[in-house]
Write a structure and sequence with these properties.
Elements: H1 9-24, H2 34-42, H3 48-55, H4 60-69, H5 73-88, H6 94-102, H7 109-116
Amino acid sequence: MIIVENSDQHCIKPIVSILRVIFAVSVKPGQPSDKELEDIASEMCGDSWKILARRFDIGESKITALDKAHDELFEKAYQMLLHWKRKEGSAATYKVLLEALDNDKVNRRDLAQKYCVKKD
């Protein structure tokens, strides 16, 4: 356990950065499967899929097109993740997915841990 005696934000941020480095050491190698992307999509809520899409540098026009093309939230999220994987090819890795899910704006560290981190 890490105890921070000072609530100063300058003390907390470096600890968070250190934890992220430690966390990233155990990232799975390779790429997520379509099944894993489907599972992730099933756990997305609200407009979080749009925020995640922006972390992948998916343009606003593509986000809007996905939003209009699909009625269900699950399908919007899943199609966005598939688009990212196809667009990036071999660069669509667990590491990139983890960093996007772990981003403060997306704030889905639970999904990053569940799908991107090696299990011992």
